[in-house]
Amino acid sequence: MRIAIDAAQAAVEKKTGIEYFAYQLIDNILRYDKKNQYTILSNNEIKFSHDNYQLINSDKKQFWNKLRLPLLLFKGKYDVFLEPGYMLPSYCPKNSITYVHDLGFKHFPECYSIKNKLLQEGALKVAVKKAKGIFFLTENSKKDFHEFYPNYRRRMQVTGLSIDKKRFRGDSNHKRPIKDEYILYVGRLEKKKNIINLLKAFASLAENGSFGHKLVLAGKPGFGYENILKEIKKNNLGNKVILTGYVNNENLPNYYQYASLFVFPSLYEGFGIPILEAFASGTPVVCSNTSSLPEVAGPGAKYFNPKKPEQMARIISETLCSDETNKKLIQLGKEKLEDYDWEKTAKKVIETFNSLDEK
């Protein structure tokens, strides 16, 4: 079969969750499928580890989803099309599959800009209308989708994902990025990620004179970032909170390796890739007890209600103060990480491609 994949998300230079996922998914599909013919469609330069594909690269990024990608798909007459992001183009083949990553905007609309909500709502309507199948990263996301769109009766499948585990394992070549002991958060600095409540929890901990940890917020600004800065100033945390900005692929493992604790306070997640990165790094994890996070982390994390900063602070403190809890979480995290494997994910996707062959 001739299969086309949109790599626009994978080609983003400063990747976050969906972009990392898209790149790794495509790379592993190419790794494990030597039978089908792949065409990678992109609006930017991109190179994968395996060479069994043709790249059609447009240097024009404007109107990619509405004009340029549909035109390439129309000309190519492909048997199957995969959209690893979440927006099917205005034209796509009948055998088109897309990912629905999460429905956070349905649960917490106040955490999204009007433009973002309209984009996601529109993308889901197109997916429900056009997609021959929809992939999800977790059972929770699949269940969530079905509750909002109960009339969708075509293929729905959970594929999971994984990470580059070797990259995050402790390495003596990793340099300590910050001299102080620190608690780490990785992700966009935005309202949905619940950074305000994390700062409130941290402020209560910092009131204790013997609490010497810094809070490292590693990620680029998102919707609501200005309120995060106000909260830092309001609680006089300027010398206790470190804003790194976007951390590149090469340096990110260093931050995980030397963190005393990884905290993930999101209100809603479709998956939560940083949890797996912390597991691989041997860093104990505490996180929210909402959405897909308990499914993803399982027994490898301690949980708190993300809407209760006092509970968040207590869980962070208890975990930091207990070597036994730390060791147990690290071990359980490594065991849980074994559930996630790119080969399994890629082969599920490839099997679906092959089942759509209606020649």
Keywords:
13 strands, 7-stranded parallel β-sheet, 6-stranded parallel β-sheet, Rossmann fold, single chain, alpha/beta, 359 residues
Provide structural commentary:
- The protein has 359 residues and is an alpha/beta fold.
- The chain has two domains: 2-162 and 341-355, Rossmann fold, CATH 3.40.50; 165-337, Rossmann fold (3-Layer(aba) Sandwich), CATH 3.40.50.2000.
- It has 14 helices and 13 strands.
- It has helices spanning 17-32, 64-76, 104-107, 114-130, 139-148, 165-168, 195-206, 225-234, 252-258, 273-281, 293-297, 309-320, 323-337, 342-355; strands at residues 2-6, 37-42, 53-57, 80-83, 96-99, 133-136, 155-158, 182-186, 214-218, 241-245, 261-264, 285-288, 301-304.
- It has a seven-stranded parallel sheet with strand order 3-2-1-4-5-6-7. A six-stranded parallel sheet has the order 10-9-8-11-12-13, sandwiched between helices.
- Strand 8 (182-186), helix 7 and strand 9 (214-218) form a beta-alpha-beta unit.
- The chain is globular and about 65 Å long.
- The model has no long low-confidence stretch (mean pLDDT 92).
